[in-house]
Amino acid sequence: MTERMPVRVLLLYGDQAELTTPHRSGSDPERIPANRIAADTGIPVTELPGERLTAVVDNGELVRFERD
Length: 68
Fold this sequence. Notes:
Blueprint: E1 2-13, E2 16-20, E3 30-33, H1 34-41, E4 52-58, E5 61-67
Antiparallel strand pairs: 1-2, 1-4, 2-3, 4-5
């Protein structure tokens, strides 16, 4: 089942972006390769922290990111 949910990029940790979701807080963020988010959204990696995006979720896996 495909669904959409809001995510927020907290910070970059090496080549990973740490995200909060409705299911993951800042104390246990989701880590996703920052380059993957940048490729999906067109936002440069260095500008990702603080961005609010929409994640497309398929069977519990974050499969794509979109600008709000």
